[in-house]
Design goal:
The chain starts with 12 loop residues before the first strand and ends in a 14-residue tail after the last strand. The chain has a single domain, classed as Translation Initiation Factor IF3 (2-Layer Sandwich). A 4-stranded mixed sheet has the order 1-2-4-3. The longest helix is centred in the middle third of the chain and has 17 residues. Helix 1 runs parallel beside helix 3. The chain is built from 3 helices and 4 strands. The mean pLDDT is 88. By secondary structure, the chain is α+β, with helices and mostly antiparallel strands.
């Protein structure tokens, strides 16, 4: 039987909606806190696709700089997992 490692502090999962590119500042802090994030991007996509693209590119750079993993979760969401947690994904580029 596989043993489960005990962590000193829990890992939190947070779901939120990105409505504006300025939301990236709070997300950056959550990534530093090693949170698992499920980010809904539909409102920003409906408002401005170019802003969405830029925000996703910045989010991707922030996640990679922190050693986090990032992937699309369907058409409406993005998931970010902290270092040490890997997201299974097919072999294609996320950008």
């Amino acid at each position: 039987m596989k043993s489960v490692q005990k962590h000193d502090s829990p890992t939190y999962l947070k779901a939120m909606t990105i409505r504006d590119p300025s939301d990236i500042h709070g997300i950056r802090e959550d990534i530093k806190r090693d949170m698992i994030l499920i980010l809904r991007v539909t409102p920003l996509a409906q408002k401005d696709v170019a802003q969405l693209r830029g925000t996703v590119e910045e989010l991707y750079a922030v996640a990679k700089a922190a050693g986090a993993d990032i992937a699309r979760l369907g058409e409406e969401r993005i998931i970010v997992a902290p270092a040490g947690i890997k997201i299974w994904k097919p072999e294609y580029d996320l950008k």
